[in-house]
Amino acid sequence: MSAVRANTVVITAFACDPRLPSEPTIGWEYLTTWLEIAGDEDLRIIAVMNERSRRATLDQLRSERRDISRLTVVAPPEHRALKVLRHHRLTRLEHIVWGWLTPRAVRRVARRDEVLLARHVTFASELLPAPITWLRGPALTVWGPVGSTGRADAYRYEPRPRDWRKRYLVQRLRDLLSTWCARRTGRRVDLSLVTSPILAARLESDGSAATVFPNTRPIKPSQQPERPKADGQGLRLLCVGHLVPLKRFELAIAALTRPALAAARLTIAGKPAPGLGNHLLDLAHALGVADRVSFLGQVDRGRVIAEMQAADVLVHLSAREGGSGVVGEATAVGLPVVVFAGTGADAVLTYAGASGARIPAGTADDPDAVADAVLRASEQPRLPSNTWTNERLSDMERALLARARMRREA
After folding, report:
1. What does pTM read for this prediction?
2. What is the topology classification, in CATH, of domain 8-147+389-409?
């Protein structure tokens, strides 16, 4: 097999829509990174995504007048009956079905022996399988960045969601299923890029190769002047994300009732899930702190960064997520972050080496646990992190390309 023929890189990314503001668009970041590499390395790029992303991706690339002569964008055909899976509650099921159909879509445009490197970069969850495993053999297969870790006990902190017992049990079950699924897929690829040392250790204990590499988009650092923070009086707190129980914004609102944060104010950027109201506003009124809580609704990324620059602490107590873009943005601004220890948010904070405070397990019965963590974070220096650069993605992908070529030549 000549090196000239094996010059195809396959990227599978279920969501690759540049118009979306959330982590799944990490696929867009990888696609544009590989377009730059392709021009330098004489590569052909095949990108596989869902049909919605395919249309949006091509529209965006054309509007930016990018060279797409080396790019083929394909999407598995969507049967009319499968359109029901587009409901936001069925996204993971839609992803699984898409993964089943992806190998056939790749076979239509490339033979197995033409593929040098196959990359699956979609979704920050180890529950979802990688549809590149059929390429094992001559191609180097790399899964990730993927993975998420959570804390079931996040739902035991007061005030609790009405269905907190259900959420607690689901999280415990998800942890078990995630471990099994991650190990199963890890054994079927050559390398897994995972979001945290916890996940890497799980895979490596099963004999799989893993490297810690959080699923966080490139972010430009923003230097901010140091501001004095004394005893918590007048602190400006910030929460960012969808107003859903998973994010546990209730805990930030309740923390305002503690004496140490009696003068603190909280800004919340985000919107409720489709069809639901703002239950957090009702909670703020019930706790008597509504005059110190501001709701911005959904705002663009520029506004989020501006709010981070004005805040003193980001409170991000998500029960579970992968490579948190919100935490990544906060570390780039230098904003100290409060997280639950052992979660995906904690992994991003640790990877960035940034300021923040972690709430340890076993503190659900301590009414001051969140307020104390906020105070600890507020006393730390405001040091912008340079971790999330464009070069971070490019350097890793070029290293994987070199590894794939060495494997082919061996």
Report:
1. 0.82
2. Rossmann fold (3.40.50)
Is 236-378 the same fold as 8-147+389-409? yes
- Return averaged pLDDT per consecutive 10 residues of the chain, 410 residues in all: 67 83 68 91 91 90 91 85 62 78 87 88 69 85 86 92 90 82 86 88 89 83 56 82 91 95 94 81 94 92 89 93 83 94 90 94 93 95 88 93 89
Beta-carbon-side half-sphere exposure of residue 260 (alpha carbons within 13 Å) = 17
Domain ranges of the chain: 8-147+389-409, 236-378
**What crossing angle do the helices spanning 325-333 and 301-310 adopt, rounded to 10°?**
50
CATH 3.40.640.10 given to domain 236-378: no
Let me know: does 39 contact 9? Beta carbons within 8 Å.
no
